[in-house]
Amino acid sequence: MIRNKKNRKFLFWLTLAIVHISLVGCAAPRDHQKTISEQAKRLGAVSEIIPADNYHLQTLLIASQKSSTLRVYIEGDGRAWARRGRPSKDPTPRGLLVFDLMAVDSFSDKAYVARPCQFVMSAKCETKVWTDLRYSRGAVDSLNTALDRLKAKGNYKSLELVGFSGGATLALLVGSQRHDIQSIRTVAGNLAPHFVNQFHKVSPMPLALDPADRNKELAGIPQLHFYGENDSVITPQVLESYKRRFRTTECIYGMKVIDASHQKGWAEKWPYLLKQPLPACQAEKS
Questions:
Q1: Is the N or C terminus of the chain more exposed, i.e. has fewer CB atoms within 10 Å?
Q2: Band (281; pLDDT cuts 50, 70, 90)
Q3: What pTM value is reported for the model?
Q4: Mean predicted lDDT score pLDDT of the chain
């Protein structure tokens, strides 16, 4: 009889734990807007979800209008994969690195743009959007729409782009299409997605656009690419592969950041890194 009571008690608590885990798992997506609200309050930014073609992009904007230039931070790939070979069900980033970079950046006018299906799901959000199609024409077009909206809200004349990881890929792809980009900085940036996939022996992405294919359009934009000393994902070979595709590299600088890995060691160094001079070449203006 005592054993049965113990078994029933054990089963009760086990069932309760399973239900709790299930509820937490289901509730996680609902917490995304809480994260955004917290970061908006922390940064003193205005949150807006911008309809961009097939997606809705989460943005934050700090528009003091003290500058005619808006500095835009582009989120990385987030949690595109649950583990190697298994896509995630939700690509929203778990870490706050890009928000942390914005927080220590003293520039007056700045914005954050998430990638398609991060923080906000839409009817078109299928797994392939944040895996095979994350550097596709659709992803680039949606980001361009968001940039146009943010630029218009503050009547800015030009943009500076900062891209983290896969956000660097999109920063370069977008930069190759626009004539209002003053500079591009990247943090642990995937500058050459085809090379990176081959280097790490992972599945190719046939529909991915490669920034190096736009070398003529990018050659005149001042670029500063930071890579971490301890980063096993984005190694120095990535920058070298990217630069090899350019006839002239006077607008492309690279800098190794000591003690930084792919995700760690950036925020505390970011104010110093932002003071590093951009290449002394002239970006084309609109």
A1: N
A2: confident
A3: 0.88
A4: 89
Q: Token digits for 188?
A: 């642990």
The CATH architecture to which 31-274 belongs is 3-Layer(aba) Sandwich (3.40)
Nearest Cα neighbor of 142 from 165, 113, 108 is 113
List strands edge to edge, sheet with 223-228.
46-52, 55-62, 110-113, 69-74, 158-164, 181-187, 223-228, 252-257
Alpha carbons 161 and 172: distance in angstroms, whole number = 9
List the alpha helices (DSSP H) in 59-214. 97-103, 127-130, 137-153, 166-175, 193-199
- Does residue 76 contact residue 93 with C-beta atoms inside 8 Å? yes
Question: Which letter does DSSP use for residue 52 in this model?
Answer: E
Under a CB-based contact definition with an 8 Å cutoff, are residues 143 and 209 in contact?
A: no
Give the CA angle between residues 183, 186, 192 to the nearest 5°.
Answer: 110
Q: What is the pLDDT of residue 28?
A: 36
Phi and psi angles of residue 46, each rounded to the nearest 5 degrees, phi first: -100, 130
Q: For the residues 56-60, what does the mean pLDDT come to?
A: 97
Residue 206 tokens read as 């046939």
Q: Which of 286, 59, 53 is nearest to 175 (CA)?
A: 286
Please check the confidence at residue 49 and state whether its pLDDT lies above 90: yes
Which residue type occupies 184? I
Q: What value, to the nearest 5°, has the Cα angle with vertex 234 and ends 233 and 238?
A: 135
Q: Given a cut of 80, is residue 9 above it in pLDDT? A: no
What is residue 132's DSSP assignment?
T
Give dist(CA 60, CA 78) in Å, integer.
17
Q: Report the pLDDT value the prediction gives residue 203, as an integer from 0 to 100.
A: 74
| Greatest C-alpha distance within the chain | 84
Q: Is 5 a residue whose pLDDT tops 80? A: no
Distance, in Å, from the CA atom of 39 to the CA atom of 35, rounded to the nearest integer, reads 6
